[in-house]
Amino acid sequence: MPGDQSGALGRVVVTAKLRLSAYEVAGAHLRNLYEKPGCADWLQRPNVGNPRSRGDASDGQFYPRRRGALAARLAEVEESPKGLEGAKAAFQEWRTDVKNVFDKTRENPDDRALLIAALFLDGEDALTVQEAARALLADNTAESVREILTGPDLTSRLSDVGVEVMGRNISLEHKAGYARAVLVILWHQRADIHQPLLAWLDQLITAETGPGRLKKISDLLVELAIAENDFRAITTIKEWIGKDSRVEHLDLIATVPTRAAEAPGPGPQVRSKLLDWPQEASESVAWVVAWVCHGEFAEHYPSQALVRVKHVLSREDRDEAVLAAEAALCSTARGPNQLARFWAAPGKWSAEGRHLAAHRAFLALLDPQDDPWIVQVMLSSAEQHPDVKDALVNRWSAALGDARVDTESSTAGHTPMTTGMSSWRRSRTSSTRSQRHLASSPISDLLFGEPGVAYDAAVVSLRKALRIPSQLRPWRDADAGPAES
Questions:
Q1: Residue 318: pLDDT above 90?
Q2: Are 186 and 116 in contact (CB under 8 A)?
Q3: pLDDT band, residue 88 (cuts 50/70/90)
Q4: What distances in angstroms separate CA 444 from CA 297, 388, 409, 419, 478, one per listed residue?
Q5: SS3 track for the chain
C-alpha cells in the first residue's frame, strides 16, 4: 500500500478513550479469526432483564489477553446455549457457581468439606473423598443407622457442590478452573481455615497413597499462592521435601518454586527463599534448589541462578545436591550466550572467599566426559586471549592445591583437556610449590599419566581438532549486573 511505502501510517497514533468490552473483543475474534459468527452473535445479546450485563463480566478486571482467551475457549466448545454458557462461566472463573454453592451450604459444613476434599482428590474414589472430608472436620463420631439412612446420598451431595461422579470416582474435568476458583474464594473469605487446611493437606501427602497426589495438590497450591500472593502455600510444599527423598518426589516438588519464582506476586519472595534454602543442612532441600537453577529459571535469571548454585556448591560434602548443582551449572553454561557469564563466576567466587564452590564450578565446567564443547571453547579462547589463558593457569593451580577437590581434579586430569594445559605445566616449573606437589595425586596423574590408562584415537583426534572460533569473551568482562551474596 502507498501508506506502507511512505511510512505515513507508521506515524499515526490513535488513543482509545473507552475500554472495550471483553465480549466485544471476543466477538470480533470469533467472527474474523475463528469464523464462528453464531458464537459471536450470542455473546452480543444482553441478558434478559439486564441490558448492561454484557460487559459486566470483563470490564475493569480482565487484561486484553484474557479477551482473546475467551474467544479461544468459545471456539472449542459445542455451539449451543449450554456449551457457550459453560465456556463463559469458566472464563468468569466460576464466580456465580461458587457463590451459589457457598450460599447453599451456609449451614452445611459436611458438604463444604466434601467439596474441599474433591478439589484436591479429583479422580479418586468417592468414598475416599468422603473419608478425607471427615478428616478435615476432625469428625470421628460414629453415626447411628438412622443418621446414615437420613438425607441425600453421596452422589447427590457431590453433584450439588458441582462435582461429577463417574462410576466410583469423582471428576471436575467438566469444570476447568473450578477447583482453583473455589480454593481462592475459600482462602480469601475464610482466613481461619488456612492452617487447618494446610495441616490436613500434609496428612494427605504423607498417607500411604499420598505421593501420587503430590502433583495435583502442589499445582493447586501454586495457583493459590500466585492468585493470593500468599507465601504460606509455598512454605508448606517446601516442608514436604524431607518427608520423601525419592527423586521423582523431589522432581515434582521442584516444579513448585520454579513456577512460583517467576510469578508476579510471590516471585520475589520465592527467589529470596531460594537463596536461603541451600544454606540449610538438608541435602534434599539443596537438591531441589539446584534442580530449580536450570531450565527456565536460569534462562530468565542467569545471575540469580549462579548465586544459588554457588551456595549449593559450598556444601562441605560432595553429595547429591552438589552433583545436581554441577550438572545445572554445565547445562546452563551451554545455553546461547551464557558461557562467558558462567566461566566468569568461579573467579568472582574465589575473590569472595568461596574457594570450594569456585573449584567445583571450574572443574565441572572443564570436565568433558558428557560434552567436550566447553573445554574446546575455553582452550581455543585461551590461545587468543591472554586473560583467559592466565585464568586457566591460576584456577588450575588453586584447584590442584586444595585437597577437598582431589577427586574432581583427578577426573579432569584423565581427560583430553590435560594436553591443552601445557601452559599450566610450564608455569608450574617456576612455582615455589611445584616440588611439594609434583608427586602428589592428582597432580602426578595430570602431569605424567596414570598406569593402565590408555588414550584412544578419539582423544588424540580431539587434541588435534581444538581449532574453533572463540565463543568466549575475556572472563573478567563478563556478567555485569547487580550482585547477590
A1: yes
A2: yes
A3: low
A4: 40, 24, 11, 14, 33
A5: CHHHHHCCHHHCCCCCCCCCCHHHHHHHHHHHCCCCHHHHHHHHCCECCECCHHHCCCCCCCCHHHHHHHHHHHHHCCCCHHHHHHHHHHHCCCHHHHHHHHHHCCCCHHHHHHHHHHHHCCCCEHHHHHHHHHHHCCCCCCCCHHHHCCCCCHHHHHHHCCCEEECCEEECCCCCCHHHHHHHHHHHHCHHHHHHHHHHHHHHHHCCCHHHHHHHHHHHHHHHHHHHCCCHHHHHHHHCHHHCCCHHHHHHHHHHHHHHCCCCCCHHHHHHHHHHHHHCCCHHHHHHHHHHCCCHHHHHCHHHHHHHHHHHHCCCCCCHHHHHHHHHHHHHHCCCCCHHHHHHHHHHHHHCCCHHHHHHHHHHHHCCCCCCHHHHHHHHHHHHCHHHHHHHHHHHHHHHCCHHHHHHHHHHHCCHHHHHHHHHHHHHCCCCCHHHHHCCCCHHHHHHCCCCCCCCHHHHHHHHCCCCCCCCCCHHHCCCCCCCC
From residue 153, how far is each of 127, 147, 231, 264, 406 by CA, in Å?
Answer: 12, 12, 38, 43, 69
Average pLDDT score over residue span 197-221: 84
Q: Give the residue from 53, 54, 23, 62 showing the smallest Cα distance to 40.
A: 23
Overall size of the chain counted in residues: 485
Looking at residue 436, its pLDDT comes to 44
Chain position carrying cell 457431590: 158
